[in-house]
Amino acid sequence: MCQEDHRIEKRQVLKSGIEYLDAVRLSAWFWQERLWFPEGLGWADLEDRDGRVYAKARDLWVALPIAFIFLIIRQIFERTVATPLASLLGVKETIRLKAPPNVALESYYCNVAKNPTPSSIVSLIKQTGFPERQVQRWFRRRRNQDRPSLLKKFREASWRFTFYLLAFIAGLAALIDKPWLYDLKEMWEGFPVLTLLPSQYWYYMIELGFYSSLLFSVASDVKRKDFKEQIVHHVATILLISFSWCVNYIRAGTLIMLVHDSSDYFLESAKMFNYAGWRNACNYIFIVFAAIFIVTRLFVFPFRIIYCTWIYPVTMYKPFFGYYFFNGLLMVLQCLHIFWAVLIIRMAVRFLTSNEKVDDARSDKEETDESEEEEEGGKDMKKNGPVQNGHAVHNNNHSKTA
Q1: pLDDT digits over 46-84, tens only?
Q2: Distance between CA atoms of 62 and 55, rounded to whole angstroms?
Q3: I want to staple 63 with a disulfide (CB 3.0 to 4.6 A). Which of 189, 208, 303, 316 is the partner?
Q4: If you compute the radius of gyration of the chain from its CA atoms, what whole number of angstroms results?
Q5: 69-103 b/e with 16+ CB inside 10 Å = b?
Q6: How would you class 332 by CB atoms within 10 Å of its CB: exposed for 0-12, middle for 13-18, buried for 19 or more?
Q7: Where does the chain hold its CATH 1.10.10.60 domain(s)?
Q8: In angstroms, rounded to a whole number, what is the distance separating the alpha carbons of residues 272 and 275?
Q9: Where does residue 234 rank: exposed (0-12), middle (13-18), buried (19+ CB within 10 A)?
Q10: What's the helix, strand, coil split of the chain in %, to 5?
Q11: Cis peptide bond upstream of 118, omega within 30
Q12: Pairwise CA distance, residues 270 & 276, whole Å
């Protein structure tokens, strides 16, 4: 028995040793210099010397505690700042009628589909004994229960607005006196032996920590129709920031982050006014956002920044894997920019041509009950004026938007 245990232990040790060697080989292959540097340059060129400090891959671990700090700060901010601000702007929690408990309908809703097919409705009618209208109304109410409230959307938008605005101001302050802000070719002057500045260090770590926190909280955040695109965007952004840090593409990275932060806070502020029902403020800010987004994401980003990361470097050295990888990530972001630009232009054109309210095309609209509830609503309307979902609609002199 002891010999058998000894043999098992030896096999486990041997297996662990093989796995460790495989990990070492994989790490050595992944970090080999010919993948990430131009010919003749390597990691030795980025060793600190003579008071000059360079970016290190191990520095990226700092972003993890920063991400968790952001998650904590966000909770405090939403409770102590965003909620009172929502009350000040007139954002009210939507009163929703809950779907009455029903085992059969709940099981279908959770395990099959949120929108039952006509044939499924017939089957559910037989199981529950409910009339068709009552089954349809149950599913409408149940879907509404799962949709986030206006207050939740407002809190999320106000948090992102605050960060994006502060990040843009900080990024602009860090770059305002840098030559590569005005002459993009300066991004590659002396590459990759570029000294790391304290402002660049914190700009990178804070941005990386913030996007990591968004990835951690994505399960609890408001889910929109472009949920998958948002995940791709967050992952591509984290990879881009991390990779540009490791191989000292820091000057290009700071410019890319500044361009992205330049319009995002306008979008989040438009959402805030939208949720508060301030229609005119929302529409005008959205038009400003659309203009800045199109200029920065469809012109400055591809024709200035990507041009200087794709065309100019090959005049200095031969292309290498890192060059293609970096520009590939930029192209992924550009594809997402085009996807979102189409949605933004559609909303802007609809508003400018017909003066309609600006609605987020990525959000699901809340459904209203029909049939019997409309009859009940007609009775209530005579007494209390207009009703919505069985509850009086409060008019604060602003047109409400979804």
Answers
A1: 777 777 788 888 889 999 999 999 999 999 999 999 999
A2: 12
A3: 208
A4: 27
A5: ebeeebeebbeeebbebbeebebbeeeeeebeebe
A6: middle
A7: 96-148
A8: 5
A9: middle
A10: 70, 0, 25
A11: no
A12: 10
Q: Are 144 and 96 in contact (CB under 8 A)?
A: yes
According to the model, what pLDDT value does residue 23 have?
A: 61
Most confident of 34-38, 48-52, 104-108, 311-315: 311-315
Residue with tokens 């131009």: 38
The most distant pair of C-alpha atoms in the chain lies apart, rounded to whole Å, by: 90
Answer whether residue 377 shows pLDDT above 80.
Answer: no
CA distance 249 to 218: 28
**How confident is the model at residue 359, as a pLDDT?**
55
CA pair distance 121, 125, nearest whole angstrom: 6
pLDDT, position 30: 67
CATH code, residues 96-148: 1.10.10.60
- One-letter amino acid for residue 25 of the chain: R
The amino acid occupying position 238 is I
pTM above 0.70, yes or no: yes
